[in-house]
Amino acid sequence: SADGSWSTAAALDKLNTSGNEVFSSFAANGDLYYSTDGLQGLGGLDIYRVSFKSGNVAGAPEHLSYPLNSSYDEFGVFTADNGSTGYFTSDRFGSDDVFAFNYQKVFTPVTGFVLDKSTSLRANAVPLALYVKEEDGSLVKVDSLVSDKNGNYSFANARPNREYQVMAYEPTSSKPGVADVATLTTPSVSSAAQSPVLYVGTRALPAPKAPVAEPVLAKAPSPVAAEPVAPASAPTASIPAVPAGSNMVLDSVYFIIYFDFDKYALTPTSIATLNRAIAFLKKNPTYGFILLGHTDLKGNVDYNIKLSKNRVYAANNYMAAKGIDPTRFKLEYYGKSHPAKSGLTEDDGRLNRRVEFILIKK
Question: Side by side, which strands form the sheet with 139-146?
Answer without folding.
Answer: 139-146, 127-133, 163-168, 180-184, 189-190
